[in-house]
Automatic annotation (TrEMBL):
One of its GO terms (molecular function) is core promoter sequence-specific DNA binding. SUPFAM superfamilies: lambda repressor-like DNA-binding domains (SSF47413). InterPro entries: Antitox_HigA, Lambda_DNA-bd_dom_sf. This is HTH-type transcriptional regulator/antitoxin HigA. GO terms for biological process: regulation of DNA-templated transcription. It comes from the Bacteria. PANTHER family: ANTITOXIN HIGA (PTHR40455:SF1).
Amino acid sequence: MEIRPIRTEADYKAVLKEVSALVDSDPVSGTPEGDRLDVLATLVQAYEVRHLPISPPDPIEAIKFRMDQSGLTIKDLEPIIGKSNRVYEILNRRRPLTLAMIRRLHQSLGIPAEVLIAETTR
């Protein structure tokens, strides 16, 4: 089993192609193919952490995403943020989140506080 580090984008794409083929064949763990898949998946993960980091989401986009995922409406956010006009101002980026809002959003919706205190991207 010859395995090399992933150093370039071309290496990365080649390994992804091999991982995809291995996943399609669904190898049994402990077999040579299963071991190869485990090792290659670990290499891919290490490469992605180093070269393809995922930046944290924008706070407002995180709130909108949670609303969409949970089927929440503006009315549902009123106990957390304030009257509907305040909720609209927050979601339209006309007013910043306050510390109290951040705490309530974190507690009520489970959005990480680190995401909510980040600068908005727009």
